[in-house]
Amino acid sequence: MELNGNHLSGRQRIVGAMVLAVGLVFIIRLFQMQVTTDEYRNRAERLTEEQELLHPTRGLCLDRHGELLVNNVPGYELMVVPRAMAGVDTAALAMLLSLEKDNLVARLNKARRYSRYKASPLLRQLNAEEYAALSAELWKYPGLSIRTKPVRENVFGIASQIVGEFREVDRQDMNDDARYRLGDYKGKSGIEGLHELDLRGTPGIRHHLVDVRNNVRNTLTELDSLPVPGDDLTLTLDAELQRYAEDLMRGKRGAVVALEPSTGEVLAFVSAPSFDGNLLTGTSRGAAYDSLAKHPWKPLYNRAVRGTYRPGSIFKMVQGLIGMQQGVISPRTHIVCNRDIIGCHGAHTQDDLRRAVVHSCNPYFYDVMRRMVNQHPDKDKFDNARLGLGWWTERVKDFGFGTDLGGHVPGTGSGLVPDTTYYNNIYGRRHWTFRTIYSISIGEGELLATPMHMANLAAIMANRGWYMEPHLIRDIGGKGKPEALQVRQEVDVDEVHFTAILDAMQDVIEDPSGTGRRALTPGIATCGKTGTVQNHGKPDHSVFMAFAPRENPQIALSVYVENAGAGGEWAAPIAGLLVEKYIRGDVDNKARESRVMGATYPLDPTFVDPVTLAQTQAASGDPEPQDAP
Amino acid sequence: MSSRSLNVAARLDWTTLLTVGVLVVLGWLNIVSATAEAEVVWDMGGKAGKQLIWMGVCAVLMVGLLAVEGVFYIRTSVVHYAAVMLLLMAVLVVGKKVGGARSWFGVGSFGIQPSEFAKTATALILAWFLSRDGRPWRTFKTRLQTLALIAAPAGLILLQPDAGTVLVFGGFIFVLYREGLSGNVLLVGVGMLVLAVLTILLGASESWYPFLGNESGFWWFLLSLALLGTLALLLVRAATLPRRRKAVSRWGIALLLGGMAFSTGLHLGMEQVLKKHQRERIHVLFGIDVDNPDADYNIRHAKAAIGSGGWTGKGWAQGPMTAYGFVPEQETDFIFCTVGEEWGFLGSAGVVGLFMFLILRVLHLAERQRSQFTRVYAYAVASILFMHFLVNVGMVIGLAPVIGIPLPFFSYGGSSLMGFTLLLGILLRLDAERFAVLR
N or C of chain B: less Cβ packing under 10 Å? Predict the structure, then answer.
């Protein structure tokens, strides 16, 4: 037995135990991999399952009468599968795509870095003509294909600053919302941006099984879902009025904001010079954006909500109203036009409130302000200034000044109503008195307001003491207007006090010596007020605010024309034309219309309309789409 | 002859044969799924069809092997061995180069891999050599000769190069252990494994050295190994009887120096000899971060496929990882991924169980022999099966390095199936004769 090695037969147990141990370790490992963790299962799903997003139809934008403002139209993307592009004549392809050869090669390399097997976009947002030109030649290039992807079209090319931009997401967007993937589009500004969540809808998902080369091999239909289209938006804009306002403002720098006083709905909204938003899509975007950004008149700057101007004479009406409400004056209060401290213009000596507004009498409102600020005879002048201004600031903010008016209009700035902190920071505590700050009494000095604030003031006048925050949305997907847009904001001025001011505003237009006679439209009782904002040596800004008709007002508006002189000269006739257009539906006063349309302000012989400029640059420029800052 | 044949059928170990049959059928089902040809199984041009042909050929081969008297295998073992050695040499010259290794003879669309037959031949020669006379393991000369018999074919295979099969030859250590190799060798083996793991782990780290700046952490390891080893040696020496101290010192110093030399050699080999991608493979295995994401691509996909099976798997021919080409070589070396993905934990644990049963059954056959030849041969068979199982399954579940060797009776491949049929058929015939002869 020993010779046979059988004395070592005990060793079989050790060998057997090793086999058992290895088998056991394997089974434990298998249990750990297959049962206790999802890590490998998830990894396998990431590898084999691909979710194809079915893009929902984006909601449309309509005007207040249901006219289509922003539409979805077919767009095309040229897709490339790099693997199939080997040996392609890049020079010929570059010619076909009208790209520089280097540019094409760079794009191909970018696609190759993304994936050799997956298709990625080579050119985006091609329009129908570009598509037609390409498709005839496409068969020569097996790696190229066309994918349709709807693009937004601004039907009339109007209100582009309001509609905003719809373009490709960036890294930040994808980080903020996992729903966005590379190559997706989203609303970036304006209504498109503000109402992205309403407009975008819910994408459907189609699940595919892909193989290692990313070819679709099978579908998993039980998990699929259909896309839900986005909500249509009904805007408050009146397309016809909007287009007319843009036409009137062509060749000028400034802004128009028109509101419906009873609702706060924005009827027209122009920041001039305006541009055609359709230029900022597709292959021409880069060049068009460039020329708009470089234009000396800054067409991309939204003057209607971000342009801050000193309110000037128009502010005197606010002073009058606050003064009356506080009881420091009445409509019968006469104040001597004492021009020692503050200058004035025109021949008048001792106006009552109504005529002081019509004449824009500076000493009158200087004195009103003095009475409002110095209300504490027992205190010294520093305390009086501090307490008075603190109280006054709150009253002025009641009118919406110094606030963003609810911020319902994208980009709304708040302007400036200086308060005690503001002056303390400049002069130091107890180092300023009424005499330091008096220029705000006539709407000059540190006061700043946007055209939107002034239109809102016109709405307050029209409503005799209240307003609704200006907004652009009438309806979201048939669900009506959000409650938050229908809150009546009360101004702490009783209705009776408005009569004198409104009389004055009507005089401004109807009195033979009124400064706003150019806004006169026979048969429509229009109330208005001119403003002429001094401008440090440059020509004055021409400003006008108005509402009409006096009873049951339908429209309240502000018009700004930069560096165009007196308010009655250019802003008033534009306001008059818009009032006539909106209330009558048409304009009879053709002479006034052609005078406004033919004018260019500020007078600049080298002026080229930014729309024209952008179009020419886009036609000649490099079609490389660049990310705008 | 006829009575002898009946005799074989009656004494045949049907349990082993049935286990192998089940493995082959299960393997074929997985090959069908892995080659995504479920609808064209009967197209003999496809891999599943080819495998079916091989299965038929091997069934005939098995019957033939069982019909041959055992004494034939014993007497011709030297011839087998010599023939295989010639083939192994020839393949290095005229072989077809596939995947960087010259290991195939091309015959039409079929290929033959001599290294598959080298395992059987080496098992036979080992059995013959160790059973020649009573206790062959006793003299140094026979030990050396035994090792040379294993090393010669292994060396030729290493030249191809085919590291996996060489590793399988390493499994013959179990045969030698059973036949008298000192258990200390196994212990030293385990010790070397521990040293190797530590060397690779610490060798890949970085550490600060005075005057030298940052270098591989291995040198700290070597330093502490020397210090701790010396300390341990002194302690052990102090605890032993004075008359044995000399021997303890001698063996202790030898072990310590040997360990340090082994460790250093391995480290330098890793850094200097291995190419970057080979080093990365090893690092991936040990969970060390590598810069190159492609380095562990295969094994990541293999693990994902297995892990996605869950309890019961996705069903036969239902696994997307298998069907859509995510796992490389999935009908041969990575066939176990298909089992894992489509049959789940229950299926793959079952297959592991079947292999354990087969190996233990072969060990059981070995121990019931009166013939030393058959016992040694059976141990060799068990060792070969075990090494294949260990390396192949260990690789796909991420417990062993990526070394391509087939799963016995399971993977696609004619040479592999034929080689294992040969290995097992001879064993079953010898086992059937266990009462007939005493050799």
Answer: N
